[in-house]
C-alpha cells in the first residue's frame, strides 16, 4: 500500500502479521485494496442498529445512524462515526481518479467515498464500504 500523506497509523504490523490475523479474503480487501463483489457482503442490506468497526484493528468507523440504502451493492454511509475515524487517499487505479477510504487507526483499505451523486443525505457523500472490511457491533 502507498503511504498516507501526513498521518501515521497507530496500529502497525508486518505483512506477515496481517496475513496471520486476517482470513485470506479479509487480507485481500483490507491490506491489498481488493473489492468484494457487489451485493454479496453481509452488511449490504443490514438494518441492525450499532457501530461498524474496522475488522483489522477494531477502531470505530461508522454508526448505523449514518447508513443508507444507495442500491450500489455495498454498505453506504453518509459520514464516518468521527471525523478522525478515516483518512482519504487519492486512488488512480483502474484508469480513474477516486478517493480511497482507509481506517485512520491501521490504514486498512475500506472502500471509496463519492460526492455529488444526488443522494438525499446531510453530507451529499456516499462512503461505499466493503462489508468484509468491517464488523458490526449491535447496539445493546
TrEMBL record:
Keyword entries, A-Z: Metal-binding, Oxidoreductase, Zinc
The EC number(s) this enzyme carries: 1.8.4.12
GO cellular component: cytoplasm
GO BP annotation list: protein repair; response to oxidative stress
Domain MsrB span(s) in chain numbering: 15-139
Reactions that this protein is recorded to catalyse: L-methionyl-[protein] + [thioredoxin]-disulfide + H2O = L-methionyl-(R)-S-oxide-[protein] + [thioredoxin]-dithiol
Cofactor: Zn(2+)
Single GO MF annotation: metal ion binding
Keyword Magnesium: no
Keyword Metal-binding: yes
Protein's recorded name: peptide-methionine (R)-S-oxide reductase
Upper lineage: Bacteria, Bacillati, Actinomycetota, Actinomycetes, Pseudonocardiales
Gene name, Swiss-Prot/TrEMBL: msrB
Amino acid at each position: 500500500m502507498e503511504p498516507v500523506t501526513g498521518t501515521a497509523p497507530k496500529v502497525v504490523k508486518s505483512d506477515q502479521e496481517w496475513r496471520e490475523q486476517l482470513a485470506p479474503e479479509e487480507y485481500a480487501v483490507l491490506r491489498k485494496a481488493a473489492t468484494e463483489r457487489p451485493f454479496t457482503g453481509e452488511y449490504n442490506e443490514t438494518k441492525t442498529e450499532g457501530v461498524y468497526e474496522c475488522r483489522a484493528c477494531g477502531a470505530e468507523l461508522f454508526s448505523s445512524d449514518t447508513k443508507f440504502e444507495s442500491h450500489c451493492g455495498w454498505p453506504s454511509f453518509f459520514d464516518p462515526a468521527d471525523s478522525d475515524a478515516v483518512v482519504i487517499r487519492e486512488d488512480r487505479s483502474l484508469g480513474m481518479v477516486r478517493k480511497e477510504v482507509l481506517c485512520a487507526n491501521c490504514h486498512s483499505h475500506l472502500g471509496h467515498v463519492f460526492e455529488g451523486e444526488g443522494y438525499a443525505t446531510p453530507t451529499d457523500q456516499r462512503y461505499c464500504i466493503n462489508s468484509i472490511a468491517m464488523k458490526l457491533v449491535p447496539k445493546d
